[in-house]
Amino acid sequence: MTDKPNKDIDVHSGVETTGHEWDGIKELNNPLPRWWLYVWYATIAFSILWWILMPAWPALPGFQGNTQGYWKQSDRAQVAEEVGELQSARIENAQKLLNASLVDIEKTPELQQFALAMGESSFGDNCATCHGSGGTGSVGYPALADDVWLWGGSLDEIQETIAFGIRSTHDDTRYSEMPAFGRDGFISEEEIDDLVQKVLALSGKEFDPAAAARAEENFEMQCSSCHALDGKGDRLQGAPNLTDNEWLYGSSPAAIRETIYSARNSIMPHWNERLDEATIKALAVYVHTLGGGE
């Protein structure tokens, strides 16, 4: 029988050492603090309790899923429940939105906030690709953040434009068509050049007076039925105002000439088959606020 080796006691603290020593420094074998041990024991107990109550362990090989736990808690079911609650709240607010006028919406902060949030989200998903973020527009795609409205800027008019589109395949689409005066041979190349100068004159840009004067008769015969004799356009036909400084395809003589020569009858799709009525109205409210609608 061998004798148990003598304990190594640190002479300074009187505490037993572990026997480890580094450069003359010994490691003391102090016991762990009781509070720390109690916390450790508590975490062990809590983890065991958690394994029992909550889903925790993966299923054994050959089985699907995991242990369900006594409470059978499911994040997926909770998310589905929350989504259902949000859908119910959305349906309720959507119904209020459908039955509200613009004045009603503006007087009801909660409804206005709902409409703007819903409209902004839908605009980003469906409209920003063409009209730009915030409705700034680009060449060939109208800016919605100004106060120029080809087909009217009231809430109802904007809503109708969104629902049925412009020159789309819908039976109730807003429709106008500018003739391709040059491509289809309605007027000569020289007459088109003169009309370019007439349009420049109407918009207050630098122009050739003689050419603009020569274009007067053609403008009256070919253009005034839509754009009016004074060039200020006609919303009922979606005919642009030629006297302002807003240009969908550019204000250079070359861009104006191309418009007269070939016509630019772009298409906006109708959204009533893709978006529900509440979303379309929310979009109309959002667009209305973007451009300071009427």
Can you describe what's shown?
With 294 residues, the chain is mainly alpha-helical. It has helices at residues 34-53, 75-98, 102-107, 109-126, 128-131, 155-164, 189-202, 209-214, 216-227, 253-262, 277-290; strands at 17-22, 25-28. A two-stranded antiparallel ribbon has the order 1-2. β1 and β2 form a beta hairpin.
Distance between the termini: 106 Å
Question: Largest sheet, order of strands side by side?
Answer: 1-2
Radius of gyration: 38 Å
Biggest sheet, in brief?
2 strands, antiparallel
**Shape label:** elongated
H/E series, N to C? EEHHHHHHHHHHH
Structural class, judged by helices and strands? Answer: mainly alpha
Assign a percent range to the helix content: 40-55%
User: What is the mean predicted local confidence, pLDDT?
Assistant: 89
Report the uncertain regions.
none
Strand content: under 5%
Number of helices: 11
Quantity of strands, as a count? 2
